[in-house]
Amino acid sequence: MVTATVLKPTKFQPLEVVDAKTLDEAAENLLKRGWTRLTCPTMPQRFERVISAFVPLTEDPNRDEYKIDARREFADGQSELGLLETTRGKLKSKPRPDEIAEGRVREDETKYKFQFNNRLPGYYSRKGLIERHVSFFSEVAQLHGEALLLGLEVAEKLDQEMPNYGFLERMFTGEHGAMTRLLRYMCDGEQPGIAQRHRDRDFLTIHVRSDRPGLWLADKNDVIVPDACETRTNSVLMFFGRKAWEITHGKIRGIVHGVTDTTFKDKLRFPRHTIVTFLHAAVSAEEDAWGKTHVHELNLLPHVDKYGL
Ligand SMILES: [Fe+2]
User: Ligand 1 center to residue 215 CA distance, Å?
Assistant: First the structure.
């Protein structure tokens, strides 16, 4: 009789990355590990079209017109929206308290970002900026809608597993709803690290796809997953952010992750493109206060803190 040896994952022996086939499996994985992959062909296959339409926007000689002072325009504390350009090593203009606490006050990498939510098309339309990049806006709006629907479906499953938190309801009542971020990292710096380890600020992140590998994460049990397989074309990666931790008073932890450019050692480097959707959820004043008094519980173990550096 053959007996299989079941290897238990340790901090140094990563789990194999397996795609969940159903929403139930995805919710189960999320609660067990803090992250999952989920079979979902539509969004990863839309990736090429969105990015092919995004690159010309970053190269538009008049691209400054697509930059928005969101704090003035929307005046509700919304993250910056529209096109953003950042230069490696530059001090962030207004680092958030969590970025200061985690020592992330400088820009990681020279990159272009585009941040889209449902309020953005109205702003651009008033300024007559849609028609110059109409295929881009059409593609990104469809992708954003698909990600939002998937997030709502997953939240419904999470509510079935953890019934007392009302995750789905909170996604409707949250101030900022959902935001999709497109990234074009130029990958021409002197270090391979292009995104320092961090936790996302949202409730649930859908990492739609990247065109190059390099994304690592530490799961709920601090096991490092060195390759999150983010270039797959048939599935998406999902993981919890800090709001999940606040809402559940620590029963769920936001997942630490970072990006190291795998082309660095080849000396022939390429830009890296990524699409991520951040799904927010309403956090009460009491939960927010709980988070502030328990923030020390998010201290990283040394093997996670130093990973990728
Ligand atoms: Fe992130």
Answer: 10
CA–centroid distance, residue 131 to ligand 1 (Å): 31
* Sheet-wide strand order for 204-210: 19-20, 35-39, 235-240, 204-210, 272-279, 178-185, 111-116, 82-86
Alpha-carbon distance 307 to 217, whole Å?
A: 9
Q: Locate tokens 């530490």: which residue? A: 218
Give residue 199 CA to ligand 1 midpoint distance, Å.
6
To the question of pTM greater than 0.90 for the whole model, the response is no
Centre of ligand 1 from the C-alpha of residue 173, in Å: 23
CATH number, domain of 195, equals 2.60.120.330
Task: Check if the beta carbon of residue 231 is closer than 8 Å to that of residue 224.
Answer: no
Distance (angstroms) between ligand 1 centre and the Cα of 201 equals 8
Which chain residues have CB less than 5 Å from ligand 1, an ion?
200
Note whether residue 254 is domain-resident. yes
Question: How would you write the pLDDT of the chain (309 residues) with one tens digit per residue?
Answer: 434 344 454 554 455 788 999 999 999 999 999 999 999 989 999 999 999 999 999 999 999 999 987 666 665 556 688 999 888 778 877 777 777 877 778 877 788 999 999 888 888 898 899 999 999 999 999 999 999 999 999 999 999 999 999 999 999 886 668 999 999 998 877 778 888 889 999 999 999 999 999 999 999 989 999 999 999 999 999 999 999 999 999 999 999 999 988 878 777 788 899 999 999 999 999 999 999 999 888 888 888 888 877
Residue 13 lies in a domain: no
What is the bridge-based pairing of β-strands 19-20 and 35-39? parallel
- Residue 139's domain spans which residues? 19-305
